[in-house]
Design brief:
The complex is a heterodimer of chains A (73) and B (241). Chain A has helices at 8-36, 41-66. Chain A has 73 residues and is mainly alpha-helical. Helix content of chain B is 77%, strand content 0%. The N and C termini of chain B lie far apart (56 Å). Classes of the chains: A mainly alpha (73), B mainly alpha (241).
Chain lengths: 73, 241
Amino acid sequence: MNVVGSLAPLAFGLAVIGSGIGVGIIVGKTIESVARQPELQGRLQGLMFLGIALTEALCFIAIAVAFIPFPAP
Amino acid sequence: MIGTPFEMNRILIIRMLVVVILVLLFWLGTRNLKLVPGRLQVVGELVTGFVRNSIAIETLGEKDGRRFMPLLFTIFFLTLGLNLTGTIPGLQIASTGLIGMPIIMAVVAYVVFIYAGLRRHGFRYFKNQLILPGVPIALVPFLALLEFLSTFILRPITLTLRLTMNMVAGHMLLTLCFLATQFFFVTVLFNQGNLIGLLGIGSFAFALAFTVLEIFVAALQAYVFAILTAIYIQLSLADEH
């Protein structure tokens, strides 16, 4: 059986598993902290967005790699 | 004119338009500075205050915050303005979605943080950054290599790629949704009369939702770029523990 196609979407899909878990952990921890101390909500929201942007940076770098035309051997 | 470095295409026109609009907004906002501000001045003060308090003074402290404030301000508003053009219906391309502009901004941030560190500490700056105190002497070469890679090579690369690929991915998502809408409404509904074309309403709703998400991501990426530059400068300027 011949399966022909490109592995790039598969690789990208595997790469975002880690990012997805990471973002979930960040947001969950922020919600937990706000539940303990509601007056810190403004500051913690800023930190949460910063953390999300840094975690998702790696999945965007993964999609950039998917666009590089690697030469076939 | 095509072929020389000065050729014009749509993207260059969009970038120049955004820069002209930004300069115009800020010039008009600061023209007759009154103590009780008029409307445009209020907006200008609000956003400048946001950049100064949340980004510059928060991470860098009072003195250094004011010193680096023009750079951070420029980076934030340039990124925000260029990102937002991806959502305006006439000009559909986010000017930071092409890798040239983020490379320039990342190189500027790179040069600034290395310059700030060298100015404050002299050539001991490299020793400070690469060799962390309290590390056993056997691990120092390995750790120095890792820190060198992470600080001097990966930082500008990740700054560039984060901004570019965020905008590229958003642009492709929006293109997908709008093309799906056009396909459903025009080709299926009008040309073939098939009622499945009513799915175009769903894809149009998706397109609107993703446009809102795109606006949010534009603002967020501008904020993240500015605050990461501020953090890198602060890490360069920090004294040893």
